[in-house]
Design goal:
Distance between the termini: 55 Å
CATH topology: Helix Hairpins
Number of domains: 1
Order of helices and strands: HHHH
Low-confidence stretches: none
Oligomer: single chain
Largest sheet: none
Length: 125
């Protein structure tokens, strides 16, 4: 059993919160894409509160924005793990990084699609 898995109760929660903050700090300082997405979120999330939409639509508009941040964190984690293993060019490393990038593209497309459908009030067919 891992010595890092022995914590329980409040100590485990405080440790986990610290690790999460460390991860956010690492993403902010080391990943330009994360900073760019954070800026987009700082613009779009307040904008969602000014839009004349239902609470459910507003929640969905905010959720897809936050989802893109989550995807970027996971993408950055995959890239860091691949780079930790080896900086050599390898087809599997390229595929892993490309798939992470594709996941981010899908999440950004989701933001655009959801916001457009809601703001343009596209009726269901």
């Amino acid at each position: 059993m891992s010595p890092f898995k022995g914590q329980t109760g409040l100590k485990r929660i405080f440790n986990a919160a610290g690790y999460s903050l460390d991860g956010l700090r690492a993403a902010f300082t080391g990943e330009a894409a994360f900073r760019q997405l954070l800026l987009i979120n700082l613009l779009l999330i307040p904008l969602a509160f000014y839009c004349d939409v239902s609470r459910v639509e507003r929640a969905l508009m905010i959720a897809v924005c936050l989802l893109a941040l989550i995807v970027e964190l996971l993408n950055s984690a995959v890239e860091a793990a691949i780079d930790r293993i080896s900086l050599d060019l390898h087809p599997l490393s390229k595929s892993a990084k490309d798939m992470g990038s594709a996941a981010q593209l899908v999440s950004l497309t989701l933001i655009g699609s959801v916001w457009l459908v809601i703001l343009l009030d596209v009726p269901a067919s």
